Amino acid sequence: MKRWSWLTCISGSCLFAVEPAPQLPSEAKMSWLENTEIKVGVDLNRGGAIVYLAGQDGINLINNFDLGRQVQLSYFSGPVPFEAAGQKPKEQWQHIGWNPIQAGDDFGHSSEILAHENDGKTLHVSCRPMQWPLRGVPGECVMESWLALEGKVLLAKARLSNARHDTTPWPARLQELPAVYGNAGLHRVISYQGTRPFQNEPATLVPKPQGKHPWSFWIGTEGWAALLNEQDHGLGLITPDRVHFTGGFAGKPGKNETLSNSTGYLAGQGQEILDHNIVHEFRYELVLGNLKDIRTRAERHQRSAPPMWRFQQDRQGWHFHQLVDRGWPIEGCLRLQLEQPDPQLIGPFCFWQAEEAPQLIVDAAFYTRQTLATVFWQRHSTSAPQPSDTLSFPIQGDGLRRRYVIKLSEAKSYQGSIIRLRLDPVPSGSPGDWAEIHAIELSRVAE
Q: CB of 64 within 8 A of CB of 58?
């Protein structure tokens, strides 16, 4: 892409010269991967964040207006507001809380690179991130990413390793998994939000939210979202096993100039607990191509069976309300303290048809005088479970591990498209009550 810069005017006629548009942020220290289809670059002066992604035309689609853009890792936890090194956040960032990000902070301080390897096939980078809302304050954590290319697809694995002195079990927060910022030419936010994923139904524009905030939230049931131009070409984000997204466009549609303030935004969303010592990993893919390319790639990740969650090494995207577990690491199961009123386990957003999963299996041990647990389900296009979207089942509170089979199909409202589960182990906890949850599995076949 070229832009015209004014030189001088003589007798009313202006002379112009062709000048390349800025394709990289200033003072970039680059590490590259490329194949015959695409080229990706990370900036070692910006924590190894992705600052360049282009096809054969060489047009960089990634926005680099400041250190809060790029394609990068960004995490959230308590406290809110977050203070450190004698600093308080600016008023505009008080709601952010603990927020280390890969590239740097809002004051222009870049994150420190700890390790970097690139053998031409896989690029690995490790950094000490900066707290976005504070001036020059490193996070008590390490962020890592591994990148590889496959045709038009960037394959990415990400890891957060926490080492916080604050051991408070802060509640779950929505995480950017990852944050993706595109240029002003990619001003159309597209996703499939219907109830028949991978059936060739049309994708649609994501509606803009009411009010001043530019970002929307939605369930993309095919596990992808995209920033596209008028020709349906651009950048797709695929989040395997995740269907919750946020994104939008801020500013004015324009050219693909990497330093422009106008930007499109996407993030895969997960409500995750980030323990003081957690090691959290996730994967994502970026597709540079047209809408068909993006959807075809996403189809590779569609589920062949109803969702299941086995809590052998992590929480599998589940989080808690009015209860806590024993913290990280997770070893074999979720060990829950049920000592508060109305304790809840809340599952990640996903997608299945009720008729494909008529029953739920809960592999668990309960130690309590209570005799009932309750499961809730959230139907597609509803903001929460409705009063009828619930089923209670008997439990034995002797502390022994059992498989509880819940016939969801017996509930009249369990039908159609479902996007989330909630499990209440007991109606109300008491001192000394606990549960160990080994697995929660939706099943096609009734036992």
A: no
| Single-letter amino acid code for the residue at 19 | E
Extract the tokens encoding 211.
Answer: 């009010």
Give the separation between CA 342 and CA 426, rounded to whole angstroms.
7
- What the chain holds in terms of domains, given with CATH numbers, is 27-299 (2.70.98.10), 308-443 (2.60.120.260)
pTM: 0.93
Q: Which two tokens stand for residue 378?
A: 């959230």
Instruction: Please enumerate, as own/partner, the contacts of 93-97 that have beta carbons within 8 Å and a separation of 24 or more.
Output: 93/132, 93/133, 94/133, 96/132, 96/133, 97/173
Torsion of CA 203, 41, 270, 443, to 10 degrees: 70
pLDDT digits (tens, 9 = 90+) for 244-261: 999 999 999 999 999 999
List, for residues 286-305, the tens digit of each pLDDT value: 999 999 999 999 999 998 89
pLDDT in tens, 19-48: 344 588 889 999 999 999 999 999 999 999
Give kind and range of the element (H or E) at residue 297.
Answer: helix 291-299
Is there a contact between 191 and 204 (Cβ–Cβ < 8 Å)? yes
Q: Which of 51, 23, 256, 296 is nearest to 151 (CA)?
A: 296
Distance CA 118, CA 123 (A): 4
- The two tokens of residue 41 are 């670059």
Q: What type of residue sits at position 166? A: D
Neighbouring-strand partners of residue 52? 41
Tell which residue, 108, 89, 136, has the closest CA to residue 46: 108
